[in-house]
Amino acid sequence: MSKLAKFSRLALILGLCLAAIPALAQQLPAPKATHKHVHQAAQTAQDPWWKHAVIYEIYPRSFQDSNGDGVGDINGVTSRLEYLHDLGIGAIWITPMYPSPLVDFGYDVADYTALDPLYGTLGDFDQLMAEAKKRNIRVIMDFVPNHTSDQHPWFKESRSSRTNPKRDWYIWRDGKGPGQPPNNWQSWFGHSAWQFDPATGQYYYHHFYVEQPDLNWRNPEVRKAMYDAMRFWLDRGAAGFRLDAVSRLFEDPNLHDDPISPGNNAYGDPNIAHKYTDNLPEARRRRLSWKPCADQRGR
What we know:
Blueprint: H1 3-27, H2 35-46, E1 55-58, H3 60-63, H4 74-79, H5 81-86, E2 91-94, H6 122-134, E3 138-143, H7 153-158, E4 172-173, E5 194-197, E6 202-205, H8 220-235, E7 240-243, E8 260-264, E9 270-272, H9 281-288, H10 291-295
Parallel strand pairs: 1-2, 2-3, 3-7
Antiparallel strand pairs: 4-6, 5-6, 8-9
């Protein structure tokens, strides 16, 4: 038999086999769902939506510009919802859009219940929520509870005098001596985490930039104000929040120095372990208190 004949015969046999596969597949019994698979499906149905959703992060400033001013905005996000829906996105997490001096890309918040005009209006936000709901896309807000901008009205009041009612909304302490901060705590961005304020002669604590003073989460008025801000957005339809820097909500009230490690960091400061300023037990307990705030709104 010639090589051509052998090849033709082999091709015919292969073609017959391939043609028979769909028919054989139809004759085979459908796989039975095991108890394990049924249990997993039932568990998934009972789980909170966020455990299985595909969540897409959006930095609005660079995502989509709707009006040609060179800055992304809320209406730009709305215009791309159909695209996000086609991708299979179940929720969008939008980084901070609040009024801000933008020292830290919006993570220095000057008003928790407003939007920066750079991004649009509350009416634009409501339209975003309505259009997202049509496509079964939830909207997650980025919330910054650890600190505010130094331009926030709360801090402006707090620094105005030692007797101001909002003085205790932030962490104010006397120095160890002239020109000496209260202890050796360091900012995440280098150097001392304490900033001297000559108007009242005390230091305020900032885990991040000098322009981001830390709130005093041991003050019940602070907690109420922040929970009220969260409810403001939940009532406008937000599905929940990504919480920024929550491990830094509390600091050691006795101001113990952090342990020093060998060497220096990138800023030239001694290396330290943030033992007394990060992940204190109170911060871990406080995280558990956020969820009921959203659950009360049926999220």
